[in-house]
User: What shape does this take?
Amino acid sequence: MASSSVKSAYWKGVRNGAPFILVVSPFALLFGVVATEAGLNVFETMAFSIVVIAGAAQFTALQLMNENAPTLVVLASALAVNLRMAMYSASLTPYIGGAPMWQRAWAAYFTVDQAYALSIIEYETHPKLTLPERMAYFFGVVTPICPNWYLFTLIGALVGQSIPQEMALDFAVPITFLAMIGPMLRTGAHVAAAMVSVTLALLFAWVPYNLGLMIAGIGGMMAGAQVELWTERKATQEDAK
Assistant: This one.
């Protein structure tokens, strides 16, 4: 029975993750094309995607490299864009922190936006899931996503500039993040963080080397944390009455 429930959780994750193939594939294809246009060879492009496996950070680093930005700025900007992964990890730890080390290591590597978004919603919606079921669901989600990220990065790197511009592959970037962020704006803290970060990103778009994104990310986190504190204080005060 336990094995059956774990398999069921895994295949549910596969089904829930499968729709993201529609946006992850062109996203990866676009990266493969842009990377080779920037001068990377196929091996370097694939190593970039396999080692980093973070689309937004990869595009950020690539753009800065094209602008001949200092190496420190490239690394700092990519790290800033990926700081959300630290928050993802902290958020997932109460649910899967008790898993064996090897499972946590693989989960850390495969913690991409889609895996986090779907998994945290599943864990919060079904708090009675066992640890093996949670891990199975997580790995089920990444099964259709990550292999396709590698595959379509390779295709993009191989075909390069032969893809017509009319295909407008860059549509995949905003659609991917809209699809993930929309369902997660469930609390005032989430909404405040999103609104502040978007506003600051627009206000500081003029800052060189995309450093405005770092400002926006930090401001959004501060706003979300502050709203959450206010909400908790208000709830405590109401309970005390």
The chain has a mean pLDDT of 82.
